[in-house]
Protein backbone atom coordinates (compact mmCIF):
# COMPACT_ATOMS: atom_id res chain seq x y z
CA UNK A 1 0.00 0.00 0.00
CA UNK A 2 1.21 3.46 -0.84
CA UNK A 3 0.05 6.62 0.92
CA UNK A 4 -2.10 9.02 -1.07
CA UNK A 5 -0.07 11.97 0.19
CA UNK A 6 3.46 12.41 1.47
CA UNK A 7 3.03 14.85 4.33
CA UNK A 8 6.75 15.57 4.46
CA UNK A 9 6.91 16.53 0.76
CA UNK A 10 4.05 19.04 0.92
CA UNK A 11 4.94 22.55 2.10
CA UNK A 12 1.44 23.03 3.55
CA UNK A 13 1.34 19.64 5.25
CA UNK A 14 4.85 19.92 6.65
CA UNK A 15 3.97 23.25 8.31
CA UNK A 16 0.82 21.79 9.88
CA UNK A 17 2.31 18.39 10.78
CA UNK A 18 5.14 20.16 12.62
CA UNK A 19 2.56 21.71 14.95
CA UNK A 20 0.59 18.48 15.27
CA UNK A 21 3.76 16.64 16.29
CA UNK A 22 4.57 19.41 18.80
CA UNK A 23 1.11 18.93 20.34
CA UNK A 24 1.81 15.20 20.64
CA UNK A 25 5.10 15.90 22.44
CA UNK A 26 3.34 18.29 24.84
CA UNK A 27 0.80 15.58 25.63
CA UNK A 28 3.59 13.06 26.34
CA UNK A 29 4.90 15.48 28.98
CA UNK A 30 1.46 15.92 30.60
CA UNK A 31 0.62 14.49 34.04
CA UNK A 32 -1.66 11.84 32.51
CA UNK A 33 0.12 8.51 33.14
CA UNK A 34 2.06 7.25 30.11
CA UNK A 35 0.33 3.86 30.27
CA UNK A 36 -3.06 5.55 30.14
CA UNK A 37 -1.97 7.73 27.24
CA UNK A 38 -0.92 4.70 25.19
CA UNK A 39 -4.06 2.70 26.04
CA UNK A 40 -6.29 5.65 25.06
CA UNK A 41 -4.32 6.31 21.88
CA UNK A 42 -4.60 2.64 20.94
CA UNK A 43 -8.33 2.42 21.67
CA UNK A 44 -9.21 5.57 19.74
CA UNK A 45 -7.11 4.32 16.82
CA UNK A 46 -8.85 0.94 16.90
CA UNK A 47 -12.27 2.60 16.76
CA UNK A 48 -11.20 4.79 13.84
CA UNK A 49 -9.43 1.98 11.99
CA UNK A 50 -6.11 3.82 11.86
CA UNK A 51 -3.61 1.05 11.16
CA UNK A 52 -0.63 3.41 11.26
CA UNK A 53 -1.49 4.63 14.77
CA UNK A 54 -2.38 1.14 16.01
CA UNK A 55 1.05 -0.02 14.83
CA UNK A 56 2.80 2.95 16.43
CA UNK A 57 1.05 2.92 19.80
CA UNK A 58 1.21 -0.84 20.18
CA UNK A 59 4.95 -0.80 19.56
CA UNK A 60 5.61 2.27 21.73
CA UNK A 61 3.59 0.80 24.60
CA UNK A 62 5.40 -2.55 24.33
CA UNK A 63 8.75 -0.76 24.25
CA UNK A 64 7.74 1.09 27.45
CA UNK A 65 7.02 -2.26 29.13
CA UNK A 66 3.29 -2.71 28.53
CA UNK A 67 2.27 -6.38 28.47
CA UNK A 68 1.06 -8.14 25.34
CA UNK A 69 -2.00 -9.33 27.24
CA UNK A 70 -3.14 -5.80 28.06
CA UNK A 71 -2.42 -4.54 24.55
CA UNK A 72 -4.37 -7.41 23.04
CA UNK A 73 -7.32 -6.81 25.34
CA UNK A 74 -7.73 -3.06 24.78
CA UNK A 75 -10.37 -3.70 22.11
CA UNK A 76 -12.39 -5.71 24.65
CA UNK A 77 -11.49 -3.75 27.79
CA UNK A 78 -15.00 -3.97 29.28
CA UNK A 79 -14.72 -7.75 29.64
CA UNK A 80 -11.04 -7.77 30.58
CA UNK A 81 -9.83 -7.88 34.17
CA UNK A 82 -6.36 -6.49 33.48
CA UNK A 83 -7.19 -2.77 33.58
CA UNK A 84 -7.44 -0.54 36.64
CA UNK A 85 -10.64 1.35 37.40
CA UNK A 86 -8.87 4.56 36.38
CA UNK A 87 -7.81 3.08 33.03
CA UNK A 88 -11.33 1.77 32.46
CA UNK A 89 -12.74 5.25 33.11
CA UNK A 90 -10.24 6.75 30.64
CA UNK A 91 -11.05 4.15 27.98
CA UNK A 92 -14.77 4.74 28.43
CA UNK A 93 -14.33 8.50 28.08
CA UNK A 94 -12.13 7.93 25.02
CA UNK A 95 -14.79 5.76 23.38
CA UNK A 96 -17.63 8.22 23.99
CA UNK A 97 -15.43 11.13 22.93
CA UNK A 98 -14.54 9.34 19.72
CA UNK A 99 -18.05 8.14 18.93
CA UNK A 100 -19.69 11.55 19.29
CA UNK A 101 -21.99 10.97 16.33
CA UNK A 102 -23.12 7.63 17.77
CA UNK A 103 -23.54 8.90 21.33
CA UNK A 104 -25.90 11.75 20.37
CA UNK A 105 -24.91 13.72 23.46
CA UNK A 106 -21.16 13.29 23.38
CA UNK A 107 -19.61 12.22 26.67
CA UNK A 108 -22.28 11.52 29.27
CA UNK A 109 -22.22 13.07 32.73
CA UNK A 110 -21.90 9.59 34.23
CA UNK A 111 -18.80 8.78 32.17
CA UNK A 112 -17.31 12.19 33.01
CA UNK A 113 -17.93 11.64 36.75
CA UNK A 114 -16.20 8.24 36.62
CA UNK A 115 -13.15 9.79 34.94
CA UNK A 116 -13.12 12.76 37.34
CA UNK A 117 -13.08 10.32 40.26
CA UNK A 118 -9.67 9.03 39.12
CA UNK A 119 -8.00 12.01 37.46
CA UNK A 120 -7.41 15.57 38.65
CA UNK A 121 -8.32 18.55 36.48
CA UNK A 122 -4.94 18.74 34.74
CA UNK A 123 -5.02 15.00 33.97
CA UNK A 124 -8.60 15.29 32.71
CA UNK A 125 -7.53 18.16 30.49
CA UNK A 126 -4.73 16.02 29.07
CA UNK A 127 -7.15 13.11 28.61
CA UNK A 128 -9.65 15.22 26.67
CA UNK A 129 -6.87 16.70 24.51
CA UNK A 130 -5.42 13.19 23.96
CA UNK A 131 -8.76 11.89 22.68
CA UNK A 132 -9.16 14.92 20.41
CA UNK A 133 -5.54 14.73 19.23
CA UNK A 134 -5.80 11.04 18.38
CA UNK A 135 -9.02 11.58 16.46
CA UNK A 136 -7.25 14.28 14.44
CA UNK A 137 -4.18 12.22 13.56
CA UNK A 138 -6.30 9.12 12.91
CA UNK A 139 -8.29 11.04 10.32
CA UNK A 140 -5.18 12.44 8.68
CA UNK A 141 -3.78 8.92 8.36
CA UNK A 142 -6.97 7.10 7.37
CA UNK A 143 -7.97 9.63 4.68
CA UNK A 144 -4.54 9.42 3.09
CA UNK A 145 -4.13 5.67 3.65
CA UNK A 146 -0.83 5.86 5.51
CA UNK A 147 0.59 2.32 5.52
CA UNK A 148 1.29 0.47 8.75
CA UNK A 149 3.86 -2.06 9.84
CA UNK A 150 7.21 -0.35 9.45
CA UNK A 151 7.07 1.99 12.45
CA UNK A 152 10.03 1.73 14.84
CA UNK A 153 9.51 2.68 18.51
CA UNK A 154 10.55 6.27 19.15
CA UNK A 155 10.75 7.02 15.42
CA UNK A 156 9.22 10.47 15.82
CA UNK A 157 11.22 11.47 18.87
Question: How would you spell out the order of helices and strands?
Answer: HHHHHHHH
Low-confidence stretches: none
On the 0 to 100 scale, the average pLDDT is: 94
Strand percent estimate: under 5%
User: Can you identify the CATH superfamily?
Assistant: AhpD-like
The CATH C-level name is Mainly Alpha
What structural category do the secondary elements indicate? mainly alpha
What is the tally of beta strands? 0
Q: Specify Rg, calculated over alpha carbons.
A: 15 Å
CATH arch. level architecture: Up-down Bundle
Q: Count of helices?
A: 8
**Overall body shape:** globular
Supply the number of structural domains.
1
Helical fraction equals: 55-70%
CATH topology: AhpD-like
User: What is the rounded distance between the termini?
Assistant: 25 Å
How would a textbook summarize the main sheet?
none
Kindly describe this structure.
With 157 residues, the chain is mostly helical. The chain has a single domain (11-143), classed as Up-down Bundle (AhpD-like), CATH 1.20.1290.10. It has eight helices and no strands. Helix 1 (11-28) runs antiparallel to helix 8 and helix 5 (85-98) packs antiparallel against helix 7. The radius of gyration is 15 Å and the shape is globular. The protein starts with 10 loop residues before the first helix and ends in a 14-residue tail after the last helix. This is AhpD family alkylhydroperoxidase. Keywords: Oxidoreductase, Peroxidase. It comes from Nocardiopsis composta.
